[in-house]
Specification:
binds beta-D-glucopyranose; Rossmann fold; 6-stranded mixed sheet; single chain; 20 helices; 742 residues; Immunoglobulin-like; alpha/beta; 3 domains; globular
């Protein structure tokens, strides 16, 4: 029987197709095969690349991108600031915004607010959401979060960080990093390390003991790397042991790579590279910045002259540097690409959504801290209150634009006065008086908040107006603080003083005299002094809270939401109450600063020197009250391998639902090396209905008892007596339990 020709053709085509698809499968390059292990894909890609292609990957090609390998279909890397939302698109080689109309993001609260929430689940949600925004905008590296420790309240960038305590920052950074990375977007933890001031930030050499380095300044980075599995880290601008942090042998090679086994990519801060030799050998993988010399002038589009560009290439070509040194960097970069852009399973992200706005609001509501509420002025009693006067520039000022690289172009922003009006419109008459003039400019790199805050009246006229209006209302809510202009909470410079700027102190004192129902809301990313505190019954600490700032604040002021944040750093009365200032160890001389206060940073210094803070680390009030009882430990004698479980009951003894942040500090009464009086080693945020009791459990291991011994270069837990202190704040210890370590 003969087969008709048309069937023969079909059969032949079918066989050909099967064969060619089999053939295609078997010949698919390993680096493109998502089913192959990443390390195999890296080696395969590397083996196909020319030296020129490898060098290209090690440095920027534009302000925020670096090349892939176009010939092999390996995509470019696209970075974005970070850390509070996705930065607007900028021009290829200029900081100015590119003028896109589809890049307005949701701004999340500043990281100080996140830290003040003390809520690890909220940190995970934050990371996941901001990662979704980055993913949708096709960025594969988010430049953040920052975890530089709060050493001085003058640091202009404290608002981008997570406070003064290494344990708190470490616990909060891990879920943030994991959340971002669940989108196939790398978190780039910054600024590693010792970037604790903006004054002389590009050159300052930090002298710090090994003990302070390991106990205070590194733990949050270590947690981000070893527990959060961060895929990227950004070197800081300054120097340590006279080497810039971006190519620092001790920080990057000895500690990050050798001790913590970091397998991600090290990215320089923008313009943080200064030396080809060190950039080649000391652990840096990717160089970013502006022109050849970093932040200032130079040839435009001179990316090929970067330290890790032509100079590096020439050294490889003339045999001065082994190609394997280059390969090591490219492996790290390819690992980043395979983990992010070439992960075919990663989600698609989402951008500017109502869901993200709601999450942003929730974070803000969890981070606002009630500091004083003596006359129970808050929550505002809506039955009794007919008229409210809101005073102060920060009540109307949009804060998402400004602050430096974290500045955001937002889809919308609700300032506090608008939030209050939204909430109270039909119930209470709300009026406004400016009170003071701060910073009227709302522009950054071509992004404008479009607000006209110009004001011609004198200080006296503004105070007089506010006081006259204050005399005839039930409650006055002053909303002031700092802002994100240079010299306040802003990158590139530090604050000059702990005081509130722009005559705000005089204004608050005057208001307190005419109306004793005064609520002061301080918006800042730093502590401020409060010389008027005795005259003001109610004080609230709020933060740069992003898109939904005003609605979140209104919810707290009216009691729709019970405040539950606690301070992530100490508020002191005077600058000299901080170790760095008392010891004259800030901002340093001749580009050198010595951290003379050593491990005694934040509350550790207050404890050592017996300084009563204005408001302590870990402190914050609620509209309800909590009782602590039944503190118990599962054992009182531990071996080094044992972990200790401590439990206690927390009861909401007030009339409204609320949340308490229970803190566990370890006290070591006797040790070979001096130790802080107490160190935070555990915390839990517990939500309780009115009248409800819950048991809180902490499990701590040997690490909680350990200190870093610089001689032995290891963590030591000395046998002997320890105490676990349970507190509602660092200066409010409610119960203690003793245990012995064998
Ligand atoms: C900042 C970084 C930022 C980078 C890119 C630098 O000036 O220190 O935090 O990510 O610029 O904008």
């Amino acid at each position: 029987m003969s087969i008709p020709i048309k069937y023969l053709t079909v059969i032949t085509v079918f066989i050909f197709c099967c064969y060619s698809s089999l053939y295609a499968q078997s010949t698919k390059p390993i680096y493109l095969d998502a089913n192959k292990p990443i390390e195999e894909r890296i080696e395969d890609a590397l083996s196909r690349m020319t030296v020129e292609e490898k060098i290209a990957m090690c440095h920027a090609q534009s302000k925020f991108s670096s090349p892939g390998v176009p010939r092999l279909g390996i995509p470019e890397n696209w970075m974005t600031d970070g850390p509070h939302g996705i930065r607007t698109e900028v021009l290829w080689d200029e900081w100015k915004q590119a003028g896109w109309t589809n890049d307005s993001c949701i701004a999340f609260p500043a990281l100080t607010c996140l830290a003040a929430s003390w809520n690890k689940e909220i940190a995970a949600l934050y990371g996941k959401s901001v990662g979704e925004e980055a993913r949708y905008r096709k960025k594969n590296v988010l430049l953040g979060p920052g975890v530089n420790i709060y050493r001085t309240p003058l640091n202009g960038r404290n608002f981008e960080y997570m406070g003064e305590d290494p344990y708190l920052a470490g616990q909060m950074v891990v879920p943030y990093v994991k959340g971002v990375q669940s989108n196939g977007v790398a978190a780039c933890v910054k600024h590693y390390a010792l970037n604790n001031q903006e004054t002389s930030r590009m050159e300052i050499n930090v002298k710090v003991s090994d003990r302070a380095l390991y106990e205070i300044y590194l733990p949050a980075y270590k947690a981000a790397v070893t527990e959060g599995n961060a895929w990227a880290i950004m070197g800081a601008y300054g120097k340590y042991r006279q080497q810039h942090a971006c190519h620092n042998q001790y920080l990057l090679q000895d500690i990050l790579r050798d001790e913590w086994h970091f397998d991600g990519v090290v990215i320089s801060d923008w313009g943080g590279v200064h030396n080809t030799e060190q950039a080649i050998y000391n652990g840096l993988d990717m160089e970013f910045g502006t022109w050849t010399n970093g932040m200032t002038g130079g040839k435009s589009s001179a990316y090929n002259d970067y330290y890790l560009a032509r100079p590096f290439y020439e050294k490889i070509k003339n045999g001065e540097v082994e190609e394997e040194v280059l390969n090591e960097k490219v492996r790290n970069i390819l690992r980043l690409v395979f983990r992010t852009n070439m992960d075919t399973d990663r989600p698609w992200g989402s951008f500017g959504t109502p869901e993200h706005a709601a999450i942003s609001r929730k974070i803000a509501e969890e981070g606002i801290v009630l500091l004083k509420n003596e006359k129970d002025l808050l929550p505002i009693d809506l039955d009794k209150t007919k008229k409210i006067l809101v005073v102060g520039e920060n009540a109307i000022k949009m804060m998402c634009v400004g602050g430096g690289s974290s500045s955001l172009k937002v889809k919308y922003e609700v300032p506090p006065f608008e939030g209050l009006k939204n909430r109270l419109e039909n119930e209470v008459e709300v009026s406004y008086a400016r009170g003071y003039v701060g910073h009227v400019d709302g522009n950054f790199d071509g992004v404008s908040s479009s607000q006209d805050l110009a004001e011609d009246r004198s200080e006296k006229e503004l105070i007089d107006e506010a006081c006259t209006m204050a005399g005839s209302v039930d409650i006055v809510i002053f909303i002031g603080g700092l802002n994100k202009s240079r010299g306040q909470d802003c990158e590139g410079a530090d604050r000059k003083s702990l005081d509130l700027p722009y005559a705000q102190n005089r204004l608050i004192e005057a208001l307190a005299k005419v109306n004793s129902n005064l609520v002061v809301v301080n918006i800042s990313g730093n502590a401020v002094s409060m010389p008027w505190l005795d005259e003001v019954p109610t004080v609230m600490q709020s933060w740069y809270n992003g898109t939904e700032a005003g609605n979140a604040l209104a919810a707290i002021l009216t009691g729709d939401v019970n405040p539950s944040g606690k301070l992530p750093f100490t508020f002191n009365n005077n600058l000299n109450d901080y170790g760095a200032h008392f010891l004259n160890a800030y901002p340093g001389n001749d580009n050198e600063v010595e951290y003379k206060e050593d491990i005694y940073v934040g509350y550790r210094w207050n404890d050592k020197e017996n300084i009563k803070p204005l408001f302590a680390f870990g402190y914050g009030l609620s509209y309800t009250t909590f009782e602590y009882s039944n503190l118990m430990a599962n054992k009182t004698n531990l071996s080094k391998e044992d972990s200790l479980t401590i439990s206690l009951d927390i009861t909401n003894s007030g009339k409204v639902d609320g949340a308490e942040i229970v803190q566990l500090y370890i006290h070591d009464p006797e040790s070979n090396l001096p130790r802080p009086e107490k160190e935070l080693k555990g915390f839990e945020k517990v939500f309780l209905k009115s009248g409800e009791t819950k048991t809180v459990q902490f499990t701590i291991d040997n690490a909680a008892q350990s200190y870093f011994d610089p001689e032995k270069h290891e963590w030591i837990a000395e046998p002997g007596r320890f105490e676990a202190w349970i507190g509602a704040a660092s200066d409010d210890v409610r119960a203690k339990i003793k245990f012995d370590l064998d």
